[in-house]
Model the fold of this input.
Amino acid sequence: MRVIDSHTEGEPTRAIVEGGPELGTGSLAERAARFEAGHAWIRSALLTEPRGFDAMVGALLCPPDDPSCATGIVFFDTVGNLGMCGHGTIGVAATLTRLGRIATGTHRFETPVGVVTVEAKGVNAFAVENVESYRREAGVSVEVEGLGRVTGDVAWGGNWFFQCPKAPLPLETENIPALTDAAARVQRALARAGIEGADGARVDHIQFFGPPASAAADSRNFTLCPGGAYDRSPCGTGTSARLACLAADGDLAPGETWVQESVIGSTYRAHYRPGSGGGIVPTIEGRAFVVGETVLHFAPDDPYRTGIGPPLS
Ligand code: PYC
Done:
């Protein structure tokens, strides 16, 4: 299997460019469901040790169903598929640029939750117009073990988010283990309380917000991803969901720039236009760099061919 690794504002993406599983035909959502049901071993083999690590997001490149798209993409982490992935889309754009499959200009990528538009501004700079994003519920309170009552908004940005405007502790790198623990408690509390996204979807991404470190940014965040790793980037789908909440509160106007800082200090520039379904259509701009091109081997007698840990079926 041939993979190309990149990072987007610090967050890694591993794109499968050759030798991925055959998923048949149909919509990207159907093929993503087949990938999740029948190829779980690829998640652990690519995204856990000894080949990877749990912060990596995988991107399986496949032929698009919509011929106007440059590629189809199934995003996945160690525990399952992601609907969309902002940093992953920017990482894939850098990878396709490296492969000579896209040039400077505008391109459409098909994901299981809809088509997104990518403007390639150079080999490392990309802006993604995401799927329509919206706030489902404002000011949802949940009792969290060790933290008391925590209040946040449930919002969609291509994945489901619980966004807490008040972080339980300062958003600084030395607090990452404690922030990870606090966000995991919130994640479990939401599941226990039956707080869900549309159609019973799990609200599996947790974000804390606070003041930025840089005077050039509007906000800083910490994002816990479904598999338990934190997002090194400001999270593209999370920033999309945040813009939807800011727009709903009248705190950000269409076209106004929002600079979102991550817990490591990297940033996305973002803005939105009104959507046709009552939400907003966000654009997220950031940088990605290709960091490696690798052929992965899976020897049949390698006891860790599917990664360290219980093999996924
Ligand atoms: O950038 O949308 C994102 C993302 C989701 C999970 C990790 N990164």
In short: The mean pLDDT is 97. Residues 176-192 form the longest helix (17 residues).
